[in-house]
Write the structure tokens for this entry.
Amino acid sequence: MLDIAQLERQILSDVERAQDESALEAVRIAALGKSGSVTALLKTLGALTPEERKRRGPLINGLKDRVNSALSARREAFKQAALQARLNTESIDVTLPVREAPFEIGRVHPITQVTDELTAIFADMGFAVAEGPDIETDDYNFTKLNFPEDHPARDMHDTFFFHPKPDGSRLLLRTHTSPVQVRTMLTQKPPIRVIIPGRTYRCDSDQTHTPMFHQVEGLVIDRKSHLGHLKWILQEFCKAFFEVDKVGMRFRPSFFPFTEPSLEVDIQCRRDKGDIRFGEGDDWLEILGCGMVHPNVLKNCGLDPDEFQGFAWGMGIDRIAMLKYGMSDLRAFFEADIRWLSHYGFRPLDFPTLAGGLSP
């Protein structure tokens, strides 16, 4: 049997002569691999008598530990030599500007920022956030919302329909977030106070319209709500969102299938060299539609219109973002231009709050 001390000197010598990581790995395998010399000694312990095992076991295990230590030390020496060589060949140009940290250069998209802003405002008024699927049924998107069968919105030139099913029914990309109002009324008992931000889809594309856009709707259902409550909510929202002390609002009669009476809302503003300033001036700008929930919609959702009533409103998130932050073209919201996002985006840690201010 090979002398343990002689074997140790041979292995340690091989470790010292190894010139790189691959050569060192070969030494390790020759000593400690499945067929290695130290492994072979360890295998002999099973055939020894208890007295011999007690004598040779510590010697062989000690050899294994010292070989492992030598291998680790040599490996660390290689690592330090490689680091030193890299430091000797690389240099830092101290005249270059310091790179900004990722959290400094990252930006929150204006749509996300404005959604957070309006959520903070309505949450302060006691509203919860409701969500629903982007793919809807004709029943939830149109029928339960009191759209007649021949309404133009049901045509292909206004709505993205999927291929018909075998039974003739068709799914569609929701044209508004109003189907979530239906889902909420079908699953929750009044009183209901929710806002519904989300993506919507229509066949339209120009400077102020895109095939996919963002909308937020609000819904209140109880026994005593009326238009006075609606006006106050919208007025307080506009004051908080546009960050003005007072705001003039004008409510004009309109028509929507799902509300009666229906109203369109204009906000007082002043146009000055392409900029729009709210809370002052003699001009008006339409920003949203609203009204009392139609009795037929309440019936379709299982609510008795003689017992419950409510109001709803809806506005484009993209549109109010453009108005507040001075963006001229809606299409830029969806072009993923990093230069545009760097200019109009918001710092990730600037959370909008009513206490700290909505705008960073």
About this structure: The chain has two domains: 4-89, 105-344.
